[in-house]
Write a structure and sequence with these properties.
The complex is a heterodimer of chains A (about 350) and B (about 525). Chain A is an alpha/beta fold. Chain A has 13 helices and eight strands. Chain A is elongated, with a radius of gyration of 25 Å. With about 525 residues, chain B is α+β, with helices and mostly antiparallel strands. In chain B, the strands form four sheets. Chain B has a six-stranded antiparallel beta sheet. The longest helix of chain B has about 40 residues, at about 280-320. Classes of the chains: A alpha/beta (about 350), B alpha+beta (about 525). Chains A and B meet through α4, α11, α12 and α13 of A and α1, α3, α8 and α12 of B.
């Protein structure tokens, strides 16, 4: 599971289906395809190439440009230890060692693609930030490189928000390492590097991620352990995509989902869950806010029956409001001859 | 979202067809709008891929950038775009009528009326979606600071003429689109979603194909939900979307499977042409290059054409609704906006700044707030269905007059202040002292809420709109039996106090804008350019 998936998971912590499938490392895209409701979820190769080219440019010359954005006077003197190793565990250990050394050295250090581990719902997730910079005073700063432009000093707020949520997950994982290192402190602001205006020149901005970090901490705590979720499954349940579709549907439906339209941009299974929500007439399929104003009424037919006077207790304020709304709407439509 | 809107969505879910959210059209539509369907390269900030442009639905003009990373090709595209759009924008500039405008006399500081020109109509641009509006702004920003060889002979990468001018116009249109109720630049999805509720969420309504599937489904379609699902995710045997996205972003599957190989073939053909050694080979290879370019044009045209048709279909659907009475008044403001920008361009003023000055930003914000209040009031007055949402919220009530008692104000010249007793089934949020408003012959009349009396009756004191004499003008006082819709909001909200001139910006807001020693404001510098820039 990568940081983007984790950040998305934190956005919908009530979804046990996603927690279980992600925690168990199930490939949801393949699963969705087997269920017959796959979504286009690929990345355009143009975007991919552009992202890689920009990151390579930012990190060229030992990260000179990047370190200059952080205000380093002599970027050429900065240390750039190698953190590659075999396997995620090896790389995580190597990263921790490099961070410890750099903090003891009290010198500017740039770690290119380090690896961090974070326990999510009882299983470790390995995360790979674009870069981490160690300051001489022992502060660690997460660097996030994105290829959307910063136009006249401001970037698309939705994209900055997504980047901040992602970076907050890295900050959280780094804090686990920093706890073991004397004199280390993880910066709660991250450096976001983007192309300036319409050029290829990098520009940076410090983004405060305290809020996103706090949200992620709370959501991760709320997530029930994968083991606990799995123990509630009927014995013999499997998410193997080569199974019969009907068997697979039963397996997926055995775990509760919390579908909301926001899932469409964050989860490969969203089409499947949306289809289910629509079939069962759940009002959440129309948006989270809709659910909020309808009180205890949860299905389309329940709400319409209450509004049209076939069911419901008129003394219930929700039912009373619905009937008033229905009467006003009908009156207006009648008056307009629609 | 109002409960009435939620209810409409639920009804749409049940019936499988979109349900009305409005009984009249709340946006003015031009007789001859220009539709622009832009496409952009994934991952690049300002690298357009192509566009369909035009005012004739049967013959759009196809503009294509065969290699979006090539600055010359992009400039050629923008020059062609300027050629397609600027004559349309200009065609409204000289058909004017005389009008009056209030201005502050610079010497006496008094408000005086000035005779000015107002364009009789204004050009209107329609894009498929909200993302299209953002893209128009982006294009405007990327073009307006470009320098042409004529403006600056030393500029390293001179832009073709007209590009900075088109940039200024697109910036103006993009900026105007942020004013509530303005119609110079419209998106088809926003237009449709304002007038219909579908059985899907707001997020899904951003997909033009899916939205139209609910509102104007193809003949013989099952339910809106199924048609919308097919529009969203239906793919052909080759894995391509049946209904391509409305852009400006393309579908990754299209990029990877079709566009990327075509662009590679084009690059190869260009290299081969450059390497040709004799005339005959060059001719042959030029043929290959033309074929490669034609292939890209066909691919992009096939991606954009369904969206182009969908925008026109959306306009057809919208035209079936009669225009709201007050939408015309808001269009007049759009005409003023167009005319004043025309004047700024003609006066040779510099392009819009990258960042607004403190006074300019405050003015924009204040005017948008006023326009928002005006839009909400006007839509409710034009449309009983919108008024129903205000009645549900307790911000308006329909009442019947049961008693009228004449009374007069105290003072030297008594004016009529009749007390009107009304009954209502609505639940207006009245505590005491609030003003309520009604519309009489298109003018607003106000009354004060006095008290609630037994049996759900309200007593109101009418305070204006009855003429100057002691006896109220005929027809200006409600009569017993009248059904009147009173609103708690003003019908013609007014803006706040005047803001200072830019030269008098207080130091708390950064002081006056930077000026050169001789007092002339410094123009914005063009964007720095480097050889590898994108746009």
């Amino acid at each position: 599971m990568d940081a983007r998936a984790l950040a998305a998971l934190a956005a919908n912590p009530g979804c046990e289906r996603r927690a279980l499938l992600d925690g168990a490392g199930v490939n949801k895209a393949v699963l969705a395809q087997a269920l017959g409701s796959s979504m286009s979820y690929g990345q355009s190769q143009f975007a991919f190439m552009r992202g890689n080219a920009f990151e390579a440019r930012v990190k060229s010359d030992g990260g000179t440009e990047l370190l200059r954005l952080l205000g380093v006077e002599d970027p050429a003197a900065a240390r750039t230890p190698d953190v590659s190793a075999a396997g995620p565990e090896g790389r995580t250990a190597r990263t921790a060692l490099a961070l410890r050394e750099a903090t003891a050295e009290k010198a500017w250090t740039l770690l290119d693609h380090p690896m961090l581990a974070l326990e999510v719902a009882g299983t470790p997730a390995y995360l790979e930030p674009d870069a981490v910079v160690v300051h001489p005073d022992g502060r660690w700063t997460v660097v996030e490189i994105k290829s959307f432009p910063m136009l006249d000093g401001s970037a698309d707020p939705a994209k900055v928000g997504a980047a901040a949520r992602q970076a907050a997950v890295y900050v959280l994982a780094l804090e686990r390492v920093a706890e073991q290192v004397a004199g280390a402190e993880v910066g709660r602001s991250v450096l976001l590097v983007c192309p300036k205006d319409f050029s290829n020149l990098p520009t940076g901005s410090m983004v405060d991620v305290r809020k996103q970090r706090a949200v992620t901490v709370r959501q991760l705590k709320r997530m029930r352990g994968v083991a606990e979720l799995a123990s509630a499954l009927p014995p013999g349940t499997t998410f193997d995509p080569s199974c019969e579709p009907s068997e697979l549907v039963a397996a997926v439906e055995a775990v509760g989902a919390a579908y909301a339209p926001e899932c469409l941009s964050a989860c490969e299974l969203a089409f499947h869950c949306r289809g289910r929500a629509r079939t069962s007439g759940a009002v959440e399929a129309l948006g989270r806010g809709v659910r909020g104003e309808l009180g205890g009424l949860t299905t389309v037919s329940e709400v319409l029956d209450a509004a049209e006077g076939r069911a419901g207790d008129p003394s219930d304020p929700t039912v009373a409001a619905l009937r008033r709304a229905a009467a006003l709407r009908a009156e207006a439509l009648r008056g307009a001859g629609v | 979202m109002s409960l009435i809107h939620t209810l409409a969505r639920l009804e749409a879910t049940r019936s499988g067809r979109a349900q009305p959210l409005a009984t009249v059209r709340h946006r003015h539509l031009s007789e001859r709008p220009m539709v622009v369907v832009p496409l952009t390269t994934a991952g690049e900030a300002g690298a357009p891929l192509g566009a369909l442009v035009g005012t004739d639905r049967d013959s759009p003009r196809l503009l294509v950038v065969p290699q979006p990373r090539d600055r010359d090709l992009r400039f050629a595209f923008l020059a062609e775009l300027a050629e397609a759009v600027l004559p349309y924008l200009d065609s409204y500039a000289d058909d004017v009528e005389p009008a009056e405008r209030n201005e502050t006399d610079p010497e006496t500081k008094k408000r005086v009326k000035v005779e000015v020109e107002l364009c009789r109509d204004a050009p209107q641009i329609v894009v498929p979606s909200r993302a299209g509006i953002a893209y128009v702004r982006l294009l405007g920003r990327s073009m307006r600071f470009r320098r042409t060889a004529e403006q600056d002979p030393d500029t390293p990468y001179p832009a073709p003429p007209h590009i900075p001018l088109l940039g200024r116009w697109l910036t103006h249109y993009g900026e105007r689109a942020r004013v509530p109720g303005a119609s110079l630049l419209l998106s088809a999805t926003d237009l449709l979603a304002r007038h219909w509720a579908t059985g899907q969420s707001n997020l899904e309504d951003q997909h033009l194909g899916a939205l139209l599937a609910w509102i104007d489904p193809p003949v013989g379609a099952e339910s809106g939900a199924e048609a919308a699902l097919r529009a969203e995710s239906g793919r052909d045997a080759a894995g391509q979307l049946v209904c391509p996205p409305a852009g400006p972003a393309t579908d990754p599957a299209f990029d990877n499977a079709l566009l990327a190989p075509a662009i590679d073939a084009y690059d190869l053909a260009r290299q081969r042409l450059a390497a040709a050694e004799d005339g005959e080979t060059a001719d042959e290879r030029f043929g290959e290059l033309t074929a490669a370019e034609r292939r890209i044009r066909e691919l992009l045209a096939a991606q954009m054409r369904p969206t182009w048709d969908a925008v026109w279909q959306a306009l057809d659907v919208m035209r079936k609704l009669p225009e709201g009475v007050r939408a015309g008044e808001r269009w007049t403001r759009d005409r003023w906006s167009y005319t004043s920008h025309r004047d700024r361009v003609r006066a040779g003023e510099p392009p819009q700044p990258r960042q607004d000055s403190a006074v300019g930003a405050a003015q924009k914000l204040a005017s948008r707030e006023t326009e928002q209040a005006r839009l909400e009031a006007q839509e409710a007055l034009d449309d009983p269905l919108v008024m129903a949402t205000r009645r549900l919220a307790g911000e308006a009530f329909v009442s019947e007059v049961v008693d009228v008692e004449m009374a007069w104000s105290e003072g030297k010249r008594p004016s009529p202040r009749p007390l009107v007793t009304v009954t209502t089934d609505d639940l207006p949020q009245l505590g005491g002292g609030e003003k309520v408003h009604r519309s009489v012959d298109g003018k607003s009349q106000s009354a004060e809420f006095v008290e609630r009396v037994g049996g759900g009756r309200l007593v109101l004191r009418v305070v204006n709109g009855m003429g100057r004499s002691k006896e109220p003008a005929p027809g200006s006082v409600p009569e017993v039996g009248d059904r009147i819709c009173w609103t708690l909001f003003e019908h013609e909200p007014r803006g706040g106090a005047q803001l200072p001139d830019p030269e008098e910006t207080p130091w708390t807001h950064g002081g006056p804008p930077d000026a050169a020693p001789d007092g002339v404001l410094l123009p914005e510098r063009p964007d720095p350019v480097t050889p590898e820039d994108l746009l």
